[in-house]
Design goal:
- By secondary structure, this protein is an alpha/beta fold.
- The protein folds into two domains: 90 residues, Roll (Ubiquitin-like (UB roll)); 129 residues, Rossmann fold.
- The chain is built from six helices and 14 strands.
- The strands form three sheets. The chain has a nine-stranded mixed sheet with strand order 8-7-6-9-10-11-12-13-14, with no helix packed on it. It has a three-stranded mixed sheet with strand order 1-5-4, with helices on one face.
- Helix 2 crosses helix 3 and helix 4 runs parallel beside helix 5.
- It is elongated, with a radius of gyration of 24 Å.
- The protein starts with a helix and ends with a strand.
Length: 225
């Protein structure tokens, strides 16, 4: 009887859900998802739990992150005095746009970790673009590739020396292309070595010599033309 009163008592029933300001997520969708969580909590696999503060836990909170790709992190605070829950969301920040080479496939915005978190317009022009030219399919929540932070490190280094590159990724390689038609070819398996080499061998004469490309795929050997 006591258990029944705790579960169904209005004392612990959630009266309000406050969601922090968001740019990419509809706040009402968050609230609806919380209601769905309680609908799926069953007593004896039959009766849905009411929205009760006592039964909204850490895992329930973190499950919201799994449901909404733009969420980078989330915190949930239960306020018993006001019978409310405060949902504080940190959204991902757009680093650039990613487009697959497959026909009729969506483009996505990605963040600093290479997570595809929001569908992007195909026709939109954006300063930083990554194109995938293999047959690999991508969807929301996918990561572009492992060690993506090294892809960005190399991009940032080169952006300071030349200009912001467009990046093409295929099955084995990454190609950095620049406005002056200069290209740098890099192996996916040698990103760390490539960054180390660039720091040691790069100088502005590379640009003055009007090179067409710098091929770093076969380190320690370096090819250029």
């Amino acid at each position: 009887m006591v258990t029944y009163e705790i579960i169904f008592s209005s004392v612990f029933q959630i009266q309000k859900i406050n969601v922090s300001q968001t740019n990419f997520i509809n706040q009402n969708d968050i609230i609806q998802k919380i209601n769905d969580i309680f609908d799926n909590k069953k007593i004896f696999s039959l009766i849905s739990l009411p929205p009760n503060l006592l039964f909204f836990n850490f895992n329930d909170c973190q499950s919201l992150k799994q449901s909404f790709s733009p969420v980078e992190s989330i915190e949930c605070q239960k306020i018993f005095k006001n019978k409310s829950i405060n949902i504080n969301i940190k959204e991902r920040v757009v680093e650039g746009k990613f487009c697959s080479g497959l026909e009729n496939e969506d483009c996505f915005y990605f963040d600093k970790d290479g997570i595809l978190f929001l569908v992007a317009p195909q026709e939109e022009v954006i300063s930083f673009l990554i194109k995938e030219t293999s047959d690999k399919k991508y969807s929301l929540g996918n990561k572009i590739m492992d060690n993506f932070f090294l892809v960005l490190q190399i991009k940032n280094f080169l952006s300071e020396k030349i200009s912001l590159p467009q990046i093409e990724i295929n099955t084995y390689d990454i190609i950095y292309s620049f406005d002056n038609n200069f290209q740098i070819f890099i192996s996916k398996d040698k990103l760390k070595e490539t960054m180390d080499i660039l720091l040691h061998v790069w100088n502005d004469n590379i640009l003055l010599e009007n090179l067409q490309y710098l091929d770093l795929r076969f380190l320690p050997k370096i090819y250029y033309k």
